[in-house]
């Protein structure tokens, strides 16, 4: 009996200390975050001291860099757990807008400070800089209070660090959050430190942890040895360093039996890398579950898409302007209305249109369902009636069969299902099978040297990827993909003209000064077959587009565009670099259009 009692007691003690060890593990991750926040706070205090003492620009700049590096060590957690605060610590130096209420908030954080101290620091900025630093320390205090009370479980930690790998790929190495100073490369290396640190707290004895630690150290070394922003080889860094780390994180998750975090996200929880063929879930952009994509809905939607009876005069279908052979565009500068007048805007591609949070150039509709109704009922485009279309469908035996397959729970077709079916067909148009995709999945022969140079320019010196985010190459912001951006670039009215386009874009629907001339950032995928370009079709070739950006957009051309969000300084791309950039964009063409 004594032996049994001793064995039971020993077992209870083992379980007790095992639980305690597990609790300590969780607490340690939290403690690490609080320690890193304290270090960040200390760097900001030193920053404040130098500014108050009127230190030299060199000293202030060096301290700014140190402060950003300290932030990068804890960025993975701030961005994941407290994204609202992160926006005002390291977000773009542009007003944050709440369009529903027609309100805007001035930006704060590192990018605002960067503009104050670089390329030249002037004493007149001292007061504003001190104000920004005070706001920053207040945000750190708020973060500490938040991290002290929230529960940080293994599944959330793993999800957060995986998201951070994707953030480094899509934002960190592009200069997105360091547009002027271009300190992105050493910062990308610094942000990887959190990966092995966090995994060791979960299970330091797991073999994958040692492998990941080794991989991150090599990635950091690569950043240190190749820290020139313009010369950095992003193709190599992603394919040979970050993608393998991402895959290994998934291996670790399986070995530890850590469940996926349940959340609504366009990134599927099962993916190994950001470039997996099925990485994105179109259902993350739908209104509710009954609108979810299915193959049966897409088959029905395809028939509706090509059906001319949806228009008033039975002479136009969706395919009239969205030709499948041209990646669902029409090849025209702008199409023609039913009355023979030119429509005001270019027809955008429908490929990858389902992976964004707003539709139309002016972003006036939030989803594809409303987009289809808008076009069908527009008096200049199709001038159809959803009520009449609904009535016709209910008399068509073939349609009734397709609706029954697509919506088996309803006894007869409903009006909303017409919109949903067309939207479902559009949601089926994301192939992700371009030569770029092949390269990112391991086929090193998919791209030649000029195209790889073009990719590095796109994600670096040319600054394209700071608006057209990899791998969707549209304005849907990674890694949460919860927001699709607009930009003011100062598009001309004519390619060789001296006038700015008179189209006010998003301002028509949200009358805020910042939105005059603002248009959605479209995908660059399939751009080789979707000419002409811009909201008004002003540029006929990709070469013209690159030349426009190289000159600094509208402001660079001398137009008055006070609210331009595009950097207006010249990119200084050489003729060879411009050619390489175009060559890369052509690698983003889906197989069926090659």
UniProtKB/TrEMBL annotation:
GO cellular component, one term: cell envelope
GO molecular function annotations of the record: cytochrome-c peroxidase activity; electron transfer activity; heme binding; metal ion binding
Keywords, sorted A to Z: Heme, Iron, Metal-binding, Oxidoreductase, Peroxidase, Signal
One protein family per Pfam: CCP_MauG
Location of the Cytochrome c domain: 296-430, 449-589
Keyword Iron among UniProt keywords: yes
Subcellular compartments: Cell envelope
Protein name, per record: Cytochrome-c peroxidase
Source organism (scientific name): Flavobacterium crocinum
């Amino acid at each position: 009996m004594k032996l049994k009692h001793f064995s039971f007691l020993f077992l209870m003690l083992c379980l007790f200390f095992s639980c305690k060890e597990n609790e300590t593990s969780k607490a340690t991750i939290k403690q690490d975050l609080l320690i890193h926040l304290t270090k960040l706070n200390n760097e900001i205090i030193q920053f404040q001291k130098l500014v108050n003492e009127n230190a030299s620009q060199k000293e202030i700049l060096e301290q700014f860099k140190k402060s950003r590096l300290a932030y990068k060590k804890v960025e993975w957690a701030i961005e994941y757990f407290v994204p609202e605060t992160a926006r005002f610590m390291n977000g773009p130096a542009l007003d944050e807008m709440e369009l529903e209420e027609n309100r805007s908030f001035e930006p704060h954080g590192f990018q605002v400070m960067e503009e104050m101290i670089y390329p030249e620091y002037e004493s007149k900025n001292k007061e504003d800089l001190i104000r920004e630093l005070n706001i920053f320390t207040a945000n750190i205090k708020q973060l500490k209070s938040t991290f002290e009370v929230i529960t940080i479980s293994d599944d959330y930690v793993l999800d957060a660090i995986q998201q951070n790998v994707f953030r480094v790929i899509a934002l960190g190495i592009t200069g997105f959050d360091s547009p002027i100073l271009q300190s992105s490369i050493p910062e990308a290396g610094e942000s990887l430190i959190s990966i092995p640190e966090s995994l060791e707290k979960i299970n330091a004895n797991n073999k994958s942890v040692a492998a990941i630690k080794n991989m991150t150290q090599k990635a950091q070394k690569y950043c240190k040895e190749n820290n020139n922003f313009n010369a950095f080889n992003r193709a190599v860094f992603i394919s040979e360093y970050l993608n393998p780390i991402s895959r290994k994180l998934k291996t670790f998750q399986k070995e530890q039996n850590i469940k996926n975090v349940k959340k609504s996200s366009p990134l599927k929880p099962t993916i190994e890398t950001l470039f997996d063929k099925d990485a994105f879930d179109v259902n993350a952009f739908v209104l509710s579950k009954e609108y979810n994509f299915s193959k049966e809905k897409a088959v029905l939607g395809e028939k509706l898409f090509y059906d001319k009876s949806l228009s008033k005069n039975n002479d136009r279908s969706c395919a009239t302007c969205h030709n499948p052979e041209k990646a669902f565009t029409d090849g025209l500068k702008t199409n023609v209305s039913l009355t023979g007048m030119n429509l005001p805007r270019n027809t955008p591609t429908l490929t990858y249109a389902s992976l964004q949070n707003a539709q139309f150039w002016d972003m006036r509709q939030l989803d594809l369902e409303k987009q289809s109704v808008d076009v069908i009922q527009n008096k200049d485009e199709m001038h159809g009636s959803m009520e009449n279309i609904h009535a016709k469908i209910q008399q068509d035996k073939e349609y009734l069969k397709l609706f029954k397959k697509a919506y088996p729970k309803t006894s007869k077709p409903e009006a909303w299902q017409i919109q949903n079916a067309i939207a479902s067909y559009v949601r089926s148009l994301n192939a992700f099978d371009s030569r770029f995709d092949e390269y990112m999945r391991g086929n090193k022969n998919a791209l030649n040297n000029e195209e790889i140079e073009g990719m590095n320019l796109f994600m670096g010196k040319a600054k394209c990827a700071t608006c057209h985010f990899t791998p969707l190459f549209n304005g849907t912001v990674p890694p949460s993909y919860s927001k699709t951006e607009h930009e003011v670039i100062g598009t001309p009215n004519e390619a060789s003209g001296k006038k700015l386009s008179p189209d006010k874009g998003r301002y028509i629907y949200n009358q805020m000064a910042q939105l005059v001339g603002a248009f959605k950032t479209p995908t660059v995928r399939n751009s080789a077959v979707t000419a002409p370009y811009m909201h008004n079709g002003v540029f006929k070739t990709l070469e013209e587009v690159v030349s426009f950006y190289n000159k600094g957009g509208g402001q660079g051309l001398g137009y008055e565009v006070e609210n331009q969000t595009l950097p207006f300084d010249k990119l200084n791309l050489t003729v060879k670099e411009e050619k390489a950039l175009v060559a890369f964009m052509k690698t983003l063409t889906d197989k069926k259009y090659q």
